[in-house]
Amino acid sequence: MALVVQKYGGSSVADAESIKRVARRIIETKKAGNDVVVAVSAMGDTTDELLDLANEVSPLPPPRELDMLLTAGERISMALLAMAIADQGHSVRSFTGSQAGVITDESHGKAKIIDVTPGRILDAIAKGHIVIVAGFQGVSKETKEITTLGRGGSDTTAVALAAAMQASVCEIYTDVDGVFTADPRIVPKARKVDRITNEEMLELAASGSKVLHLRSVEYARRFNIPIHVRSSFSHKEGTFVTDQPAPEGESVEAPIIAGVAHDRSEAKITVVGVPDRTGMAATIFAAIAEAGINIDMIVQNVSATETGLTDISFTLPKTEGPAAMQALHNIQDEVGFASLQFDDQIGKLSLVGAGMRSNPGVSATFFKAIADVGVNVEMISTSEIRISVVTRDDRLDDAVLAVHSAFGLDADEAAVVYGGTGR
Amino acid sequence: MALVVQKYGGSSVADAESIKRVARRIIETKKAGNDVVVAVSAMGDTTDELLDLANEVSPLPPPRELDMLLTAGERISMALLAMAIADQGHSVRSFTGSQAGVITDESHGKAKIIDVTPGRILDAIAKGHIVIVAGFQGVSKETKEITTLGRGGSDTTAVALAAAMQASVCEIYTDVDGVFTADPRIVPKARKVDRITNEEMLELAASGSKVLHLRSVEYARRFNIPIHVRSSFSHKEGTFVTDQPAPEGESVEAPIIAGVAHDRSEAKITVVGVPDRTGMAATIFAAIAEAGINIDMIVQNVSATETGLTDISFTLPKTEGPAAMQALHNIQDEVGFASLQFDDQIGKLSLVGAGMRSNPGVSATFFKAIADVGVNVEMISTSEIRISVVTRDDRLDDAVLAVHSAFGLDADEAAVVYGGTGR
Questions:
Q1: pLDDT, mean of residues B233-243
Q2: Which residues form the ACT domain (chains A, B) (predicted)?
Q3: Which residues, including other chains, have CB under 8 Å from residue B96's CB and lie 6 or more apart?
């Protein structure tokens, strides 16, 4: 008997009707002869509503108590989903993250899964039950405290369960038909991708694609778990994220480009007038790192010979802007730079494809497409299978459309978009 | 350092403002030099809202999953209360019933506490934390499943915690000033009782008084835990429920009557034309017991000599009426009774007082008061410290007012009522 792990996001279980629909879908999988374990997110806006409540009582709630609060969300959705399955005549058991053996480190709000001990799940499966597990949550190894995994955590729960129980596939149900060559809200002619490698999916997730959370892809790659991203609103096949070879009979020639990702969540800080001496950049980025801030792209201008001064720009999540500015102000005298500029009107475009390695013309086509629509490139960074550029926020969509078209990714028809996205 | 256990009901934590108010109150107790452990109910209508959601997905949800769902309610309220306390600068930890070591039997929806192992609470207290515990919930001893204690369960949680940790007092905060000589919504001149014995409180709770749940009083009596019932909306002293002698200087002469309770939750079933033979009543009540139904009062008429037939009436919770009628129909041929009558238009009035034992005139005064307002008594039952009668539902209030007045319980001023009641 094959074991299938499924994950349903918040938009798939937003109300009683949706929950019943998902229940039918789970039962279909069971009836097809599979054991089924389901990770589920909190219903629709539950998490936001709980956060609002928390903010009403405290502007800065203790992370331990915030995790205690937020985990009520999946407790509600998983119990309701179990009820809906039982109501259709199938035996079912729901388990919290703690009961399911999702063991994490001690970091409240952004815990990492360090082990999965699915004893209770395996017992329940052996008794013929369908199993529902609360996504997004776990219990810490040392102090046995309730933890949450952060944004996208339910994807990671599903993949971790699939890995621990050697599932044959981890199906991630969402509100789109799969992974697209671009966000269909920007590129109406974006095409669904049938297969994509883990490496490409990692680059897309790291570049702003929201369909799968980065950590879940890392987890799946490490444990070699094939992910099937598909819609809970249709029965179409979605996208297989896997490094395993395509089934016989399917084309084995991989496309050069997997897709175009965009990201509006970043800001740019420019440190103006940095003395061009050894160690200045190191001092600046040490201060940023000590403040616990992750930076993305970095650009340093060539020093103007007459002044001996240079500018250093880098991008970071908008939300960490204030903390970074403060950290830099604190070292202004030490470094001797002239001023700081904060710019949150930027966008990032990334082209991802494993085929780039062996196709030298990709960069030329990419930059020509952007130039042809008159968009200015402010920063550039590359990996072996990715090119990213920063543009003005209000020109980003034009650039995405142009690049998507230039690489022949446009489909004949517009894609279907169903609704919002869950966590 | 004294340990004080407090319980706050749903109406005391109905919204963010209420939660902040309760937080201040808890901090006052801590600042007065006490260790504090708080059991808290779900916010306001949360439990009803969760039940509505459950009913939307299933008319008859599995009890295990219903408990999983409902326990989300206290998880939310306890985390928010902990946040509010932390926001005011005090260290605090919240614990679910399971984490707090509230061990129950396996009966979902009406579990009984069989042990309390408060290791994590004691650790937290030793570190100086205020402790918040989810009321109403526990974990089953054998199967480690999440359970709930049924209506009024948070009172029982508080008393059980107080007993396990030998607290000096268990304070039950509610939306009235304490235990009253009658329900102030019926008797505006009801008086707050300063002290009441466990035995009297048990009879009142069993007779329809909702201020304390019956099981919590039983628990407190067994472990000799003094309960202080008081309002979370004022700082007045409430009612001490205790068998311990009054402090020196206070009057030690107990009043004859503790109070008048009423109950509109019962119905009456009459089995008409039962052959007056040995064992007929036993057959009838065995059938009722086998259906798992608790009955309250029983009256059997004297058999009419000419017919050899008698009628048997009994009261039971209205909600169990249909099941009882079905059980009786099933034995109609065996017993040979003529017909069944179901009457849910009844009310029950109970007079409770330990002083009845030594005051023979109580019954006479009681029945005269009821007769004087023209209310017909349909059934009577008594214990050593209680007289109960059944009347027409629509005459119950008149009878309650008359009895309250006849025993000189009326206060000079009307009592203050603050709001609804929590669980």
A1: 92
A2: 269-345, 351-423
A3: A68, B71, B74, B75, B78, B133, B134, B137
Q: Is the pLDDT of residue A127 over 90?
A: yes
CATH architecture entry for A257-406: 2-Layer Sandwich (3.30)
Q: How far apart are CA A25 and CA A167, in angstroms?
A: 18
Quote the distance between the C-alpha of residue B297 and its chain's center. 18
**Nearest-CA distance A141 → chain B (Å):** 15
The class (CATH top level) of B2-245 is alpha beta
**In the prediction, which pLDDT does A151 show?**
82
The candidate with the shortest Cα–Cα distance to B277, out of B243, B312, B245, is B312
Can you give the pLDDT at residue A253? 60
Hey, of A38, A57, A71, A130, which one would you mutate to test binding to chain B, going by the most B CBs within 10 A of its CB? Answer: A57
Q: Is the pLDDT of residue B420 over 50?
A: no
Nearest to A61 among B56, B83, B96 (CB): B83
Comma-separated ranges of CATH 3.40.1160.10 domains in chain B: 2-245
Return the CATH number of A2-250, one of 3.30.479.20, 3.40.1160.10, 3.30.200.20, 3.40.50.800. Answer: 3.40.1160.10
Among residues B249, B247, B241, the alpha carbon closest in space to that of B193 is found at B241
CA distance A134 to chain B (A): 11
Strand order through the sheet with B339-343: B298-300, B309-317, B266-275, B339-343
| Helix/strand/coil for A191 | coil
Residue of A20, A94, A99 with shortest CB distance to B65 = A94
pLDDT digits (tens, 9 = 90+) for B289-338: 998 888 999 888 776 667 788 899 999 999 999 999 999 999 999 999 99
Distance CA A14, CA A198 (A): 30
What secondary structure letter does DSSP report for A46? Answer: H
What DSSP letter does each residue of A88-150 carry, written as one string? TT--EEEE-TTTTTEEE-S-TTS--EEEE--HHHHHHHHTT-EEEEETTEEEETTT--EEE--
Q: Where in chain B is the domain with CATH 3.30.2130.10?
A: 257-406
pLDDT band at A412 (very low <50, low <70, confident <90, very high): confident
- Spell B285-312 as b/e; 16+ CB within 10 A means b: eebbeeeebebbbebeeeeeeeeebbbb
User: For chain B, which residues lie within 8 Å of any Cβ of chain A, measuring from their own Cβ?
Assistant: 16, 19-20, 23, 50, 53-54, 56-62, 64-66, 68-69, 71-73, 75-76, 78-80, 82-84, 86-87, 92-94, 96, 99, 144
Nearest to A69 among B62, B71, B79 (CB): B79
Per-residue CA distances from B350 to A40, B186, B315, B415 (Å): 51, 14, 14, 20
Cβ separation of B68 and A75 shorter than 8 Å?
yes
Q: What is the DSSP letter of A376?
A: P
ipTM for the complex?
0.84
Which of B65, B72, B86 minimises the CB distance to A65? B86
Strands, E assignment, B234-365: 239-241, 259-263, 266-275, 298-300, 309-317, 339-343, 346-352
Nearest CA in chain B to A46: B76
pLDDT value of residue A256: 86
Q: Are B114 and B80 in contact (CB under 8 A)?
A: no
Residue spans in chain A of domains classed CATH 3.40.1160.10:
2-250
- Global pTM reads 0.86
